[in-house]
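FIELD: query
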Amino acid sequence: QVQLVESGGGLVQAGGSLRLSCAASGSIFSIKRMGWYRQAPGKQRELVAAIPSGGSTAYADSVKGRFTISRDNAKNTVYLQMNSLKPEDTAVYYCNVASLDYALKPLEVWGQGTLVTVSA
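FIELD: result
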């Protein structure tokens, strides 16, 4: 079992910044990929940013140049620094982690979601 604990959401004015954190714990042999997705009301969940272990980060076009994903491997934690926030960034943000357990079984886990609201 892998557990994810997200934090950092909230209400911010347009142009402001927020930093999301997601810490993974449990039966983790190695983490292959960590990412952030978001889901706005009435819309499908979409990838915001992802960071594999060894490889290039990936961003949605809508957040390139404004958001930065990073990870602390020692803490099994992924961060999303969000700058120059826009009202259209308002959504529930979900952490996603793909890992291997000690039996080398692949696992994929979602966080509980954290609400980000950007006011105009």
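FIELD: remark
The chain is about 0% helix and 60% strand.
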